[in-house]
Amino acid sequence: MVVSRFSGLGRQMITYLRKGPLTFSPKAGNLCASYNYFSHTLTPRTFSTTTAHEEGNKQVEEISVIFFDNDGEKHVKVPVGKSILEAAHENDIELEGACEGSCACSTCHVIVRDLEYYNKLEDPTDEENDMLDLAFGLTETSRLGCQVIATPELDGICLELPAATRNFAVDKYARAT
What we know:
The protein has 7 helices and 5 strands. It is an alpha+beta fold. A 5-stranded mixed β-sheet has the order 2-1-5-3-4. Strand 1 and strand 2 form a beta hairpin. It starts with a helix and ends with a helix.
């Protein structure tokens, strides 16, 4: 950040100095005053990983997703481009995701209730299929929540959460004790 502020400061000083001969003014009477003038007038450049939806400065398209579990159903709005796993976590839905969405476990296993919606999804990758083989209660319409990304075509999708998950790290530890 310090380097970028100084490079920005240098650009502004050169632009300022090209405008005309050097004159002493209250803003630039000496080197310290010049530095303070330029360093405080720099345009801040922030970088953020938040989406425009979270910033509130732009309307982001959302889809409706219905989650079914043992407690009933829960309707949530999911921004387009977000994974089902992320949406579940943001809406306090019990979908584990032990690998944090890296497709290295099967704890975010969901079942698409309607074959029509399942066919709208991209085909699962070989890595996802390998993880799904380890999932509890596997069905023909099973997917990993971390690999299902919200698109406008999926508006109204119904997802069922299996009654249990297999978390081999925890299960192995439980057997060892």
